[in-house]
TrEMBL record, chain A:
<protein>
    <submittedName>
        <fullName>Uncharacterized protein</fullName>
    </submittedName>
</protein>
UniProtKB/TrEMBL annotation, chain B:
<keyword id="KW-0805">Transcription regulation</keyword>
<dbReference type="Pfam" id="PF08281">
    <property type="entry name" value="Sigma70_r4_2"/>
</dbReference>
<dbReference type="Pfam" id="PF04542">
    <property type="entry name" value="Sigma70_r2"/>
</dbReference>
<dbReference type="InterPro" id="IPR039425">
    <property type="entry name" value="RNA_pol_sigma-70-like"/>
</dbReference>
<feature type="domain" description="RNA polymerase sigma-70 region 2">
    <location>
        <begin position="25"/>
        <end position="79"/>
    </location>
</feature>
<feature type="domain" description="RNA polymerase sigma factor 70 region 4 type 2">
    <location>
        <begin position="104"/>
        <end position="152"/>
    </location>
</feature>
<comment type="similarity">
    <text>Belongs to the sigma-70 factor family. ECF subfamily.</text>
</comment>
<keyword id="KW-0238">DNA-binding</keyword>
<dbReference type="InterPro" id="IPR007627">
    <property type="entry name" value="RNA_pol_sigma70_r2"/>
</dbReference>
């Protein structure tokens, strides 16, 4: 017996295809070019800021320049512009061996989706950085647990024990309140 | 590979695959614009590393995987890059509204759990076999068969089709 869904999906495809309006390959090129430009500009701004900050920090009231003290210019700039240690990404990753996701928090929330069959899981979240990091764990689109990690420069990690009743998804939402924090996470079946 | 060839290759893949991928994700999201955004983002990511991706055995599979990963991770809801993509959208022409059958099918799909919905869409619109879906999802073949069976049953119930018409995987 033919599968009746085949014809329904064929109809869906036939009805929808004419309505798809691709932005175009050129638009993709513009997007990639724009992002590369933004990255380069941001890098240039950091370099300029580092240099400027370092020069200002070394200048005495009489205009003379003294040699740098103990803190390096790059560490100082990192503290000022990005906040937190320069190696915070590595610190967070070290707290979560085998992490599937890791990044540095931007100003917006990070929403990570993880597939999961039914069963018990341990979600390990590590962070290193200057701000508290609120973590929301959702199981099959329902809030399961919420906790704020008190991130430090030396890093902290928390384990969340999760039960997934049936095959579905686990979402981990990291609040943008934790901007500049480095994080790493891993979902492990028990 | 010369740069021009790389460009042409990307354009060809884009032209051949964009609409089809969008239909798949539209069936998954129920929102055509959102589906287009995600597919466009997937192609942007492919373009950025096209010199490498184009050498894969199946570059389209890479783009499809990225698009679905973006869809599953809900990246689309949290990335401000979308606002830029939206500004690039061509003006939508006035078109006929969706047919009743299409609305009902998309609504019925939306009522399925995400994994079942994804399996059904990949199978019926992505033309992927059970084994291919299992590999993509990182689960056993039997799990995908179960998802498809439940998905078909769920769709049949939503669409008021007699469940005995639903073919078993």
């Amino acid at each position: 017996m033919p599968d009746p869904l085949n014809s329904l999906f064929d109809d869906l495809r036939r009805d929808t295809l004419p309505q798809v309006r691709p932005p175009g390959a050129e638009a993709a090129r513009r997007t990639v070019h724009r992002r590369a430009t933004v990255r380069a500009a941001a890098l240039a701004a950091v370099v300029i800021a580092v240099g400027g900050t370092w020069i200002v920090s070394q200048r005495n009231l009489d205009g003379t320049i003294t040699p740098a003290a103990s803190a390096s210019a790059s560490t100082y700039a990192s503290d000022m512009l990005w906040r937190g240690r320069a190696d915070k990404t590595e610190i967070a990753a070290a707290l979560v061996p085998g992490a599937s996701h890791s990044d540095v928090m931007a100003e917006h929330d990070q929403d990570v989706g993880l597939e999961a069959d039914g069963g018990n899981y341990r979600l390990r979240v590590g962070c290193a950085g200057p701000a508290p990091l609120p973590v929301t764990v959702m199981v099959n689109e329902t809030v399961d647990q919420q906790q704020t990690l008190q991130c430090t420069d030396d890093g902290v990690a928390r384990d969340f024990e999760i039960t997934v009743p049936s095959a579905g998804s686990v979402r981990v939402i990291l609040s943008g309140i934790g901007q500049f924090d480095a994080y790493a996470l891993r979902l492990e079946k028990l | 590979m010369p740069a021009d060839d790389v460009s042409a290759d990307f354009d060809a893949v884009y032209a051949a695959q964009f609409a089809d991928l969008t239909v798949q994700l539209y069936a998954y999201f129920g929102d055509r614009q959102e589906a287009q955004d995600v597919v466009q983002e997937a192609f942007c990511r492919a373009l950025r590393r096209w010199s490498k991706v184009s050498r894969y055995d199946d570059p389209v599979a890479w783009v499809r995987r990225v698009a679905w990963n973006l869809a599953v991770s809900r990246w689309r809801r949290s990335r401000t890059a979308l606002s830029f993509l939206r500004r690039q959208r061509p003006q939508e022409p006035v078109v006929d509204g969706p047919t009743t059958v299409r609305i009902e099918l998309v609504q019925a799909l939306a009522a399925l759990p995400p994994v079942q919905r994804r399996a059904v869409v990949l199978h019926y619109l992505g033309d992927m076999s059970v084994a291919e879906i299992a590999e993509r999802e990182g689960v056993a073949v039997g799990t995908v068969k179960s998802w498809l069976h439940r998905g078909r049953t769920g769709l049949a119930a939503q669409l008021h089709q007699p469940s005995e018409e639903v073919r078993r995987a």
